[in-house]
Batch of 2 targets.
Target 1
Amino acid sequence: MRKRVIAGNWKMYKLLAQAVDTALELKPLVANANHCEVIVAPVFTALKTVSDRLEGSNIKVAAQNCAAQNDFGAHTGEIAPIMLKDVGCSYVIIGHSERRQFYGETDASVNQKTKAALAAGLAAIVCVGEMLAEREAGNAEAVVQAQLKSGLEGLTVADMERIIIAYEPVWAIGTGKTASPEQAQDMHVAVRKTVASMHGRDIADRVRILYGGSVKPDNIASIMAQPDVDGALVGGASLEAESFARIVNFDR
Ligand code: PGA
């Protein structure tokens, strides 16, 4: 049985006090959500305070990116996975499409960052997803398969136990357009198949695959009803505690 995961990606929103307020407001609203893991991903500058304030709660903290190195060194502007672990993170999001599109992230850097994150004891939420033109050309599955093959290359089965995959079609992120539940299900099956080809059926059956892209309180239930959808990575609708809590508690 795969434990579900609902993760909120706060992107570049919220000053420190606002991040703390949202986290504290969320805490009681999801306190009984034993049916899933609840994760929030604030900006770097809020990670330490938010994770301190959430200590002892069932909400885990994720960073939105990390460096590909854990050794201290001359990497101006980078933050090592061990530093994220040090301030209370349990997870890190890697290869979000905004980073791939606008900040030069590649499958190769996703692979290096994922390995560094795992080495630091973090679990990694690795994002994949096709652009609209790729879907329209009928290449969506091939694109996602290629991202997985390079992004997860060289990982062991034990490493895969600490990987969560987020399928986020780029055309659905922040656009109000959601993949249909069937489109999500079909891609999640394809993702599982790719993982099986790389690491065997057993791990493919256990890996959690989240859907992301315009998930809202009113569409979460139909997405979660798909057998291969194990949770959601939520952007815009995670910024307000009340709306994110409705997503977490979608079946209550
Ligand atoms: P969205 O973002 O829910 O605002 O579409 C999802 C994401 O980018 O993870």
Target 2
Amino acid sequence: MTQHIGIFVTGGIAAYKVPLLVRALVRAGNEVRVVMTDAAKAFVTEATLATVSKAAVLTDRNEFAQPEHVAHVALAHWMDLAVVVPATANTIAKLAVGMADNVVTTTLLAFSGPKLLVPAMNDQMWLNAQTQANVAHLQQAGWQVLPPATGFLAEGYAAVGRMPDLPVIETFIATVQPVAFLTGQRVLVTAGGTRERIDPVRYIGNDSSGQMGTALANVAAAAGAEVTLITTATLPTLPQVTVVPVADAAAMRTAVQATFPAVDIAIMAAAVADYRPVEQADHKLKKHGADGLTLALAQNPDILAELGATKTHQVVVGFAAETNDLLANATAKLTKKRADLLVANRVGAGLGFNQPTNAVTLLAPDQAPVALPEAPKVTIAAQILRHIQQVRA
Ligand code: C5P
């Protein structure tokens, strides 16, 4: 889905990373227009940003270059989404009081769509009570804020204030929700394929990348939920997602059972191995020669079925990845595992696993199947989460 994204660059050192962000957003299929303050020009050039965004950059110098239209109003009309990155303490203060003294603040004042703030500054400037009050005020006014990370600052020491890594900012932009439709909800998501150890260097695994589950966790968090993601994958997540890394089915089960009682919604998107080696060697197994090697496998517990059997108030959602007889197999799983919703997706060559897009069918007891056509996984995630809200209602 092409979005018209306005990137507003203000005068902080992290501005030097913005061209790479713009390039990633353009590569992902978005159209980007950049607006920059004069202070930002000390850190990144207008020519670089124009080249990577494939469009002229709006500045205080060229705002009136085309008298036939008012540039800041035209841009505000064009944008679907505005991102201030990096946002300095100075620009945050101006935005908080509604000032419009340069092309960045003027355009943002004229824009009523979703507005994202990515503050990055010195730790003391960030922790300053006035800066914190300004950010809190903007959040109340509907701005969505990606808090700065803790790490190495330009000043040469580690502290809070660092601009989050670009994949996290890309995730923040890609998962933004116009309405916080999951505020107050606690959501548990599993993601990724489990790795069942054979020995210290080998495992039985599968092709699940964890993208679908991670998208569900990020979108749920962007929609206001309190999210725990139990995952075998290491993909970018929003800072407000609590990530519990696990490797195998046994560890995933322990973590799920510890989290499940306190949640409202549990989404089991992980591809959990059905079997594990009975024995896990503590040393690398030697070659067995021409006779071959037989691995004895034991069945893993079905985590989803256990949740279905023990749920009280929770909505339990499962996934069914099938290569054939999709709906028949998925409907059987819905009943057998006592899930409230089953997300069925066809997998195989070029489908489902390890792809940025997905196409799924939603199955709920006594309801007609709902087919969601192929779309990016974050879009599918938002549709699934909205459907879960309907199932609950
Ligand atoms: O039976 P199958 O593995 O195809 O079912 C898939 C669904 O069951 C997914 O939601 C998956 O997370 C869950 N599952 C599980 N524990 C297992 C196997 C699958 O929770 N041992």
